[in-house]
Specification:
78% helix; 116 residues; mainly alpha; 0% strand
Length: 116
């Protein structure tokens, strides 16, 4: 009787291990699928930016992204939404990028010093 309960215990352990392995494999598959979706979205974003920005504008955007990543991402999202809504005629050049940057950059406090 003691032997059969040990056998049952061992069988339950094996089943539990199999379930855990299956769950882990499913989780790995889900993570791979998510990573593939993110890579595809990033590739599409780059393609749209390449289509709607001149080389100079892309360089300026990359410079902004290196110094202020959050600000650069915000500008990218703005350009993508403009492109998707059809409000971009032709390509955005460097001057237009400067204007867009100045519009989206929060005003920094300026000081007026007056001498009497």
């Amino acid at each position: 009787m003691n032997m059969s309960s040990e056998d049952e215990l061992e069988e339950l352990r094996e089943k539990k291990m199999e379930q855990l392995k299956e769950q882990q494999q499913q989780q790995e598959v889900d993570e791979d699928a998510l990573q593939a979706q993110q890579e595809q979205a990033e590739a599409q974003k780059k393609a749209v930016l390449r289509q709607h920005l001149t080389d100079g504008a892309r360089k300026r955007l990359n410079t902004v992204k290196m110094s202020k990543p959050e600000h650069g991402d915000q500008i990218e999202r703005q350009i993508l939404s403009l492109a998707q809504s059809g409000r971009v005629q032709g390509k955005i050049d460097e001057d237009q990028m400067k204007q867009l940057l100045s519009e989206l950059t929060p005003d920094s406090q300026s000081f007026d010093i007056r001498r009497r």
